[in-house]
């Protein structure tokens, strides 16, 4: 017998000509004469799904990423046949499918090209594993820019980069290192002032090339699975990001305390050490809402146990911490120690809940407890069991949140640092190997954890944080950027990563402030805390192997800077809470890179450092030592320097002076910024006024403030307060209109209004068309006014 494997190797295969098509409600099926089928589904006028199969039929349609609770709909859909292509027209876009080779081209209604295939869909048979290596290449135009893809330690603009998506435990990763912990196969393209997005919903190892290999070609491919992607049309980046976030889901509101400052270390133990750290925060008057217990709180690193030597009475300790305003968060890893006396192991073993190798034995690997087996979180029965394990921690002991780590999944002392490919998973009734399940393992663990913590925290809201995640994980959990390093380079990386995660649907993200590995200088820690308080998740975390990293581990100047900026975060909690409300309501990113904020200004397309915090605060961190100023780009519009109240005109790069206890922060002209008084923890104080900082503007500006009970679910029944302020400034007068929605009545009865930048001397103040008496001299000196919270119109006249 003669075999010639080279003759058998087929290389890349392509769809041939279309022989027929069918139109079924929102989907159009195109059939080729070599058994390729394209199912094109119009979900919205601006959202189209492309799904290909090479075998003449589709496998079961299942995705962990898509939010199935959300329905879709379009306004218009027609399908026509032309000489060389089929044409699908919606109210927003035109899509042409070419008859000769199944390639697609997408246009706006004016006929401008948005995205078109280069080679289009092609594939390679995977002889080693079966199935296909699926590929897609798109034509890229000169000047096109690319953003998104979640957890990447590289420039904001991905043009010229090739990246890989495979959830990986990358301890002490470096700039440009890839892959990292999270997988978000979603990117945004921008060209000619129009944005579009691509979400490649494939959980196998995936790759994206943004004109790296070939100058005018963008491509993405996967080691297995389907070519299954979604196209989003803007034309604004805001439209693309909110549509993607809507598709993959949004979280519920966290409790307000989860947006406070958190302190963590590997590890705080024994109990006396935990109490000492908590007491020091209160002594130094540095606000803090949560303290974390890493793996050393457990008995031999066994999940759901306590080390009785270190923590003899955890319920008492947690209660005493809570009395002083601290919420206790504990770590839970996926590795379950192989120990026949260990109840969690015995339950999982008895019910056959562990992942198995292809030939039958349980997947076994070394993690912190030693030899472990690993639950298959893709099995709904396992997730339900796992959720039930949190009863003692949450209901009985009083723990307020859970931190999932090592869930890439990470395995020690093996070359690839994770499960072998032959490990089998249930995949919610769609059995598969670890090649398909790897990237969603961490998300399914976080999902099971979320349901458990929510069940036993009710009627309060749960708090979950995860290291590994796939698109859609934001429905269940917050995240952080993993084991970073105490270097200036990593401060730069943290700034980029959190911005990128924010426009990739996973807004509730932060970094380990100060760096996890190695030891920061006092200056580096100070600069990091100055950035970290403007991240949605705000936590200092470090490896105890490298020394202490609490604020008081540094000198008095650093302590004072930490206090100043953490105080600022607590003052801005109503602003931050409002940002979060807009995120869950509309999918609006909490942090906005400058290109998102103003995509039509080409100067923003390659900016990395500056970002918009919420809608109206511009932040630019100091990213190098010994700097008392920096050059930065201020976007178009007018902006007030937060520290000096000086007004600058944007649309240009400028030098900004700072001090060691400042970073460049600007507030948009016309903004109304709400502030609480400084509290040592959320809920410490009852207060009777909300401060509103009002920045004068010639023209109009809208600001909003969302509030509720700060925890619980009454907000879903309409018990919230949503204030809309419309500021109109012209000449020597300012008009502020207030409209309120919701049934929630806030505890405070009045606003303390601070006016900033008024260009005239105030002579008359009217509230709801009635002139009020005020001390003109005192107002001129202090520039503030106390008014009732239920006013409708405030009129300031010069």
Automatic annotation (TrEMBL):
Q: Which GO terms describe its molecular function?
A: hydrolase activity
- Where in this chain does the record put each Glycosyl hydrolase family 31 C-terminal domain? 587-673
Domain Glycoside hydrolase family 31 N-terminal positions: 38-209
Source domain of life is: Bacteria
Q: Where is the Glycoside hydrolase family 31 TIM barrel domain?
A: 251-579
Q: What are the protein's UniProt keywords?
A: Glycosidase, Hydrolase
For this protein, the record's CDD domains field holds:
GH31_glucosidase_II_MalA, GH31_N
Which is a Pfam family this sequence falls into?
Answer: Glyco_hydro_31_2nd
InterPro entries attached to this UniProt entry: DUF5110, Gal_mutarotase_sf_dom, GH, Glyco_hydro_31_AS, Glyco_hydro_31_C, Glyco_hydro_31_N_dom, Glyco_hydro_31_TIM, Glyco_hydro_b
Q: Which residues form the DUF5110 domain?
A: 689-757
The text of the family note is:
Belongs to the glycosyl hydrolase 31 family.
Name of this protein: Glycoside hydrolase family 31 protein
Biological source species: Flavobacterium magnesitis
